[in-house]
Amino acid sequence: MIEHPNDFLLLSRCHAIIEEIRGDPVPRILFISRATGAAKGAEKGVGIFPSSFNPITNGHMAILRRAAGIKTFGEIVLILDTQAMDKEVFGAILEDRLLMLHVLFEDHPRFSVGVSNRGLFLTKAELLREMYPKGTDITFIVGFDTLVRVFDAKYYEDLEGDLNRLFDCCTFMVANRGDLGREALQRLMASCNNVRFEGKVRFFGIPNYAARISSSRVREAVMEGRSLVRLVPEGVKDFIEKANLYGSDRGVDPRGQRVNLYDLRTQVLRRLYALYPDGRVGIDIGEIVDRVVEGMKNGRRLETLMDSVTALMPMTGERVGNN
Description:
By secondary structure, the protein is α/β, with parallel strands linked by helices.
C-alpha cells in the first residue's frame, strides 16, 4: 500500500479539486468530505476553522480541541483557502496541505474539510450563511493574530459596512497566540471602531507552550534537523518526513549539483498531472523521486531524467477513469 504523502491518485484528486475551484471567477466553498450527520448537526451550530496551515501544528490542534470542548458544535469545518489574502504560497503546495487535513481528520465524524477560492472572512461568511439553514449559528475559530487581520482596514472597501455584514453572519472564538491573550483582545475590541462587536467575540485560552508553536517554528526545526515531537501531530510528522517537506538542498551528483527533494517531488507531480489528468493507481511519487536521485548520482542530468519520468514509474500503474 502506498503511503498517503506519495500516493499519486490521492494527490491528483486534490489537485483537480483545487484547480477547479481556483479557476472559478465566482466565490465558492467546496466540501471535500462531510461530517457524519452534518445536516442535523447544523442545528447545534457550525464551527469554521480556517486551515491554510504550512503546516498544521499542535498549537492549531490545541485551539481546535479547546474550542470544541467549550462549545458543542454539530459540525466543524476546516477550510483551505486557495487564494491567501496577503501571502504567496510557499513551502507545502496546496495539494499537500489539503491531503494533510484529510489524513488528520478523515476518521473524525464531527469534522468536514472544504476548499475556498476566497480568503476574505466576509466572503466566506456570506457563502456559509447561504449553504446552511437560516438561523444556523456560524462561529469562526481563530487565533488572536488572525482576528487582528479581520479588523484591518486594508482588506475592505467599506470598513464599517463590511464589518457590520460580517458580524451579522457570524461570531468569533479567539485563542491566545504567542504572548498575546485576553488583555490584548480586550485592547483590540475596546477601540472605537471595534467596540460595537465586543459581544460577537469570545476569548478562550490554550496552554502557553501550545500558543507559542507556529508553522514557521516547525519549518525551522525541519531545516535545522531538530525533532518535531510535540510540535506537530504524529500524522503530520510522518507526512513531512515521507514527502521531504521543508528540507534543505542536498548534493546528489558527482558534479556537486544540489537539489531540494521536495521541489523535485513537486516537479515530478507536475509532469504526472499533465500526463495523467484523470489519475493513475500504483504510482509511488517517493519511489520516482528516489529513482531520479539515483540517476543524478550516476551522472545523468535532471532535465533528461524529468523528460523520461514515465520510464521511472513502477510497472504496476493502471490508468483510472474519472474516479
